[in-house]
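Morning. Coffee machine broken again, so started the prediction first thing and wrote up yesterday's gels while waiting. Chain of 191 residues, entered below exactly as on the submission form.
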Amino acid sequence: MASAVNFEVPTWNQLYELLLNQAHKVLQIGKPDLIVAIARGGTIPARILSDLLEIPYASVQVKLYNDIAHAGAQPELKQSLTESVKGKRVLLVDDIADSGRSLQFTAAYLKQEGAEQVATATLYFKPTCAVTPDYYEKTTSNWVVFPWEYKETLREVGQKTPGKRVQSQEIAKLVRAGFPKQITEKLLTEL
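Came back before lunch.
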């Protein structure tokens, strides 16, 4: 039987539109000095916001999720900051606020490292999240599959779903949610 996880698969164009809206909101409040991406998920949104806002970005790697819908016990710092935040107003960026633990953990870390102010921004926000980001563009209860994690998602479905029939059902759910069928076929056969 297929899992109870529902998927949402935004396109690149939809995500860029969300980031344009977010950049506008950030500018209304005041441009930060630096964007800090929570790597891996926040790297691409942070890079795009960096371009739109015309400010530099840095990154920090924090890991919480082990696979689809399965979080670890606590966020874990995997790579420290790539640039100093001392005395800076920072916009902390991730792709989604799911449990909120990564945002809380990383915001506290940035303050400990001397950030003057830390605002948080995500593309998506889950209503069950422990914290609400200062900026978010869309609320969902679904498992969001971003274009930068297609292969990872297919690999996890294959590893965590028992039996070819159930795997096929899960992949069909992904495709119905907007996962590009042609890319799915290429990833499954060529890589």
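The chain has two domains: 7-144, 147-190. Going to sketch it on the whiteboard this afternoon.
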